[in-house]
Amino acid sequence: MNRIGSKFAALRQKGEKGLIAYITAGDPDFSSTREIVLRLEEAGVDLIELGIPFSDPTADGPVIQAASGRALAGGATPAGVISLVKSIRAESEIPLILFSYYNPIFCYGCREFAGDAAGAGADGLLVVDLPPEESRELRQFTDPLGMDFISLIAPTTGPARARKILGSASGFAYYIAVTAVTGTTRPDPESVRKDISRLRRISPVPVVAGFGISTPQDAAEIAAHADGIVVGSALVGIVEKNSRRKDLALQVASFAREIGGAIRTPPSVRG
Amino acid sequence: MKTVPDAGGHFGEFGGRYVPETLMPALIELESAYREAKKDAGFRRELNGYLRNYSGRETPLYFAGRLTRELGGARIYLKREDLNHTGSHKINNTLGQALLAKRMKKKRIIAETGAGQHGVAAATAAALLGMECRVYMGEEDIRRQSPNVFRMKILGAEVVPVAAGTATLKDAMSEALRHWVSRIRDTFYVIGSTAGPHPYPMMVRDFQSVIGRETRKQVLMIEKRLPDVLIACVGGGSNSMGFFHAFRNDAGVEMIGVEAAGKGLDTSLHAASISAGTVGVLHGSKSYVLQDGAGRIRDAHSIAAGLDYPGVGPEHSYFFSSGRARYTAVEDREAVEAFIRLCRCEGIIPALESAHALAYALRIAPGMKPDRVIVVNLSGRGDKDAEIIMKNGEDK
Predict the structure, then answer these.
(1) Residue from the list B18, B165, B182 with its beta carbon closest to the beta carbon of A134
(2) How many independent structural domains does chain A possess?
């Protein structure tokens, strides 16, 4: 079992929900990203999604688009992100998932990318524009290395298709909580609850929800029905606002701690 | 040639569906709705009726006699797609897709546009069929193609300016895709090029292939034989693929796609994805793209907004890799010269996009024997480009 599997097993044993934090790697620079990841871990974040910046992020809203732009302007490349993984791995065992669009990986070379990412200590890959129909060309290299390939399920995904996707899921399944790009729309807790309970009944892996979760309240409400939640744009927004501050990483971590507190407080204690 | 695309939308190693999961069910639904519509005689009759009585098809195949005499070589014909309603070939596709949208009970269409020709054609089809229409257009293109912006607005479409990136066609398409994700249930995305995820490259090609079917029939009637060379400009590739497709099995017919070389292929200011790019994934399909070594899509440049795109439809990449078509590139300067020449010599103002194809014909025709036949697809008219030409000081 890799770090992702062990982490979810440990969470399940404690009866806790997982908190996954997304940040764009290289925004504002790699050393800040490294510091942010380490502080997020201290703040109780369970897994990290490191975004590889891409010039044309068609699944992202304005906040992550801007972060990708800043990271690219600062010279971030997929090779740089892999080095970042290595440097984080030197100090931390937190599960790391690389979040990417397909083109940077394809351009790097699927075989080479899989080898280098796994070698650096990445545990999983989430390629947002690589649906199951096209994913074999990458998974033929990542699966044998024990890297999880995180599958996405959307509100538009029908039951038969969801079953098929879950059939080849590894690590965890990522439920896109809104029919929108990242960070633009608040999820409707009731419809998320319905979809997630349906998915969890048939899923061989934990099911987490993400896209649009930006407040402790929403996080708590949605986490109650899932195995974990992803917070992305809200954290990236804090990076943007505080990017010149010396305590940038602490600012980001402090927000993550708030979210973590909210999803771990049993419903009976919440007001 | 074998039939492409395959069931997954692949043209050999190109094409496919590289999109977020939110879009996948919609693309699958669209594909099956399209395949059903294609088989439905009622749908075909309705579309053909509009093409004939509304858009004015078939468009003429015009023998450019003065130009041919001046060049003293091959006989040059122009397929007059500029004479379509709205002034370009784009209407062939927007009528098809808008009718399909209606059939799928979608009340709202969105589109991306570069030169504004597709945006105008989409706004026109929406007005005709009583649908809401929103067009995404880069701010740079809004500035340089303002006559088309006015036309879209007059037709009742909402034009949404896109400021991201170079504020051109690529960014407009990214923004349209993002919006589509958020309105997937009630919105039909009318893509204007043979680009994007499957089924778009196939569907747009099919709707545009009327160009080549007519041309083939017309040239056989006039010349009693097939042409030697077909020339069309290639941005995303809809006019050229529509023009080439009916000839794909005619081995003796050479097909030449002309990309935009901008300020030169040795500079970074061009839009020649096949001539100077590498294979990558952009806007949902695998094809030749302009990118740096780290997979970052590069900015394209062309004086012709409709060619100013760092990618190309996957079937063109397939034609290129299989050798069925040849691809070359023409610089801004040479396209402008061809533009002026056609105006003065034939009294036809071509779109700057189409002027790229024409420029290549001007280059090769003099070296060909007078019994050879070249057909250039004159994909659009150039009224929209008058301001660019005047500013260039080319009006003297």
Answers:
(1) B18
(2) 1
